[in-house]
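Re: that chain you flagged

S.,

Sorry for the slow reply, it's been a week of failed gels. I finally had a moment to sit down with the sequence you sent. For the record, here it is as I used it:
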Amino acid sequence: DGDLIMPTSFNSINADYLEKLANDKIEPYLMFVGSNFWANKEGLEWFFKNVAPYIQNKIKIIGGICNAFKDVYLPKNVELLGYVDNLDPYYANASAIISPILSGSGTKTKTIEALRYGKTIIGSKEALMGVPPEYYSKIGYLCDTPDCYIDAIGQLDDTKINCHSLAVFDKL
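Prediction finished late last night. Pasting the structure tokens below so you have them in one place:
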């Protein structure tokens, strides 16, 4: 166990800034952001097999992890974007962040980043490591089965900014 909790190195993002970037004309989508790291690949492979084929939502994958899936058959609702110049508009317009991380340790940078952008997070216990459990229901959904992910995604509304996520980011 650690004796010291280090603050995140991310600065807060203003909700008004995110609201200005959000565009109602952009079709809602789920998003995953990550590097080409084994735990990201493992989680996405599981998600692509067990969840993506059973939902209608578009799924945008951003970052180096796209390299792991270049020559792999993917469900038709998955789009690999690779590296982007600016994450801000992608985060602002995502309905939620999916984070089906199955292995690893410690607090996930992707989770802190999603909170910073005021996103609802649909993720595993591993993905939410470091976030106090009392916040889970406010920032999104803790899921451990395909049905849980499918149900959580089905409960999403048109809200692009989760004010609770922004508040939790400021507390962490």
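What I noticed first: Helices lie at 15-21, 38-50, 88-93, 109-116, 136-139, 146-154, 163-171.

Talk soon,
D.
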